[in-house]
Amino acid sequence: MDLFSPSYRTIILLLCLTFTPQQGTVLAATFTFVNRCDYTVWPGILANAGSPPLDSTGFELPKATSRTFQAPTGWSGRFWGRTGCNFDGSGSGSCLTGDCGSGQMECNGAGAAPPATLAEFTLGTGGQDFYDVSLVDGYNLPMIVEGSGGSGQCASTGCTSDLNQQCPSELKALDGNACKSACEAFGSPEYCCSGAYGSPSTCRPSIYSEMFKSACPRSYSYAYDDATSTFTCTGADYTVTFCPSSPRLQSEIFKGHNTNDFNTTNNGDRHRHRHNNPHDTNNTYGFRNWDWNRNRNWNWNWNRINRI
């Protein structure tokens, strides 16, 4: 065959297209999951609509181990830790907290049943990444997110407090192994930021969300808690740690945050928290104002909270 013939050039072009990575598969970030808990955690991974799944959607992470995944440019989704799981040799089973309802170790496109601590990411396409740790769907275990190798703010965020130990009785779930959101516990529009309460001016922090915010000042505590809870970084890799214990990480998360500064006026249009809750048919989450007169005897022992 003539090396300069049109047919030969066509073959070369087809080979190049076959073996050249497409733009959508260019790697944007590495996610490393680290388990510092005294027990096994089974992380779950849910890619948002339009984002490809990562190499796993659910896996076992024994204590003192880690696992790394690559994510493509533009990927968005969420991570959480499942606890109290029981899976057989074929991977069939379920979890006490954070269960995704798939009946398998792999979540296969299903999200976490609340209560569950969530880490949420949107990786920029040549721009900023957005990330947060959210307690809007409740809490089941401590979790932090750290960025490394990037530029910009790149702050650590998360919740290192054990809220299960301090959870009010009306929010306790699963024999004290998780703490519900007020929306999950009571289901009213005021708590869920829905209906007439579906705007920043009407969806206000409650004593419950302020309780979460005081214990975990950088985590989302209610649907419009954007100003102190969403973080950005460019070109970073990320580590998601369950049950973090490092004093450095704790001081970094707490640094520069006044636990009395609750933002109640931020519009939060870019990152309105409406998590996929299988028990919430309106797919809305949030909190309502606490009736101080009716519940003036309600007591939260603030001094016992590990405020980091």
From TrEMBL:
Keywords: Signal. SMART domains: THN. InterPro entries: Osmotin/thaumatin-like_sf, Thaumatin, Thaumatin_CS. The keyword Signal applies. Residues 1-28 form the signal peptide. Gene3D superfamilies: Thaumatin. It holds the Pfam family Thaumatin. Residues 256-280 are annotated as: Disordered. Belongs to the thaumatin family. This is Thaumatin-like protein 1, variant 2. It comes from Stylosanthes scabra. The lineage of its organism: Eukaryota, Viridiplantae, Streptophyta, Embryophyta, Tracheophyta. The gene is TLP1_7.
